[in-house]
Q: What sequence folds into this?
């Protein structure tokens, strides 16, 4: 059985209990992070810790633990659960007041709830899907307009994935005012010639930690980066496309709304970016 972390304690997963009045349960009032583990080490821990702090600040919340404690908890869970490859999920909510109320509770009397658990994914980096590539469909982006805050309001992204599944695809790219924002749980890109195009950072998208790393490594792959709005039609005419996230790393996209890109197999540049990302990340893992 997995050991999980809840409010200062390491517990068997079946013994970790949270109040029914928790603000995350009633109001989706919480933020989260997903950090991948490769070879027993954390990938991009610093980036995730910094973004967590930002999400909390934007929502007027405070972390119940320091960054050093957070690292220690991540490492301890990876150790006790024997995770070689997998993920660490972290969630901090505005805590559990003693009744339902729209007004934020006083943080002095209602401390945040912090939960971490691991997910074991043997061979995470060696995904057969990466060799095949994924198919995406487009859906309207109906989320709220602070997507830069990594909140646990994931109903619409879940619906997007269900729409994709029903359409025989693997995931969905969301479109707002005619332009792609991002994938349901990842950032979206296309490649034309030597150029990677992806939407610029703003409140419209999550500022992906994998995105930042991949754009940094683009130069190493002799590629240019253009951060701007793009349409589904433009991406369908591209040479290649891909998505990035902490759990998918760099994942080639081979079809958009039924239109195959190139010959319908993962493009060489996306695969090269995946390789560089994985190599560099493993080197920098802690
Ligand atoms: N999702 N955009 C959205 C909407 C996301 O939910 C995610 C991450 C990303 C990529 O961010 P990063 O590179 O920091 O993982 C972009 C996580 C993995 C999830 O919900 O499981």
A:
């Amino acid at each position: 059985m997995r050991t999980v972390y809840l409010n200062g304690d390491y517990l068997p997963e079946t013994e970790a209990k949270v109040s029914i009045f928790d603000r995350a349960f009633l109001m989706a009032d919480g933020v989260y992070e997903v950090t991948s583990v490769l070879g027993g080490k954390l990938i991009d821990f610093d980036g995730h810790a910094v973004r967590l702090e930002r999400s909390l600040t934007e929502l007027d919340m405070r972390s119940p633990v320091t960054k050093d404690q957070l690292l220690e908890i991540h490492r301890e869970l990876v150790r006790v659960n024997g995770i070689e490859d997998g993920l660490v999920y972290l969630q901090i909510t505005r805590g559990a007041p003693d009744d339902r109320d729209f007004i934020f509770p006083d943080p002095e009397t209602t401390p945040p709830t912090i939960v971490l658990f691991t997910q074991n994914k043997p061979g995470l980096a060696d995904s057969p899907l990466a060799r095949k590539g994924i198919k995406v469909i487009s859906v309207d982006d109906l989320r709220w307009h602070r997507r830069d805050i990594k909140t646990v309001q994931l109903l619409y992204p879940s619906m997007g994935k269900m729409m994709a599944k029903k359409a025989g695809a693997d995931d969905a790219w969301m479109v707002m005012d005619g332009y792609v924002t991002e994938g349901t749980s990842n950032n979206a890109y296309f490649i034309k010639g030597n150029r990677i195009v992806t939407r610029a950072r703003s409140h419209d998208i999550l500022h992906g930690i994998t995105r930042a790393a991949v754009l940094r490594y683009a130069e190493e792959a002799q590629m240019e980066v253009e951060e701007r709005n793009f349409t589904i039609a433009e991406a369908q005419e591209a040479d290649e496309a891909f998505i990035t996230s902490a759990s998918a790393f760099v994942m080639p996209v081979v079809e958009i709304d039924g239109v195959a890109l190139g010959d319908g197999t993962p493009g060489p540049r996306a695969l090269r970016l995946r390789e560089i990302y994985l190599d560099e990340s493993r080197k920098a893992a802690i």
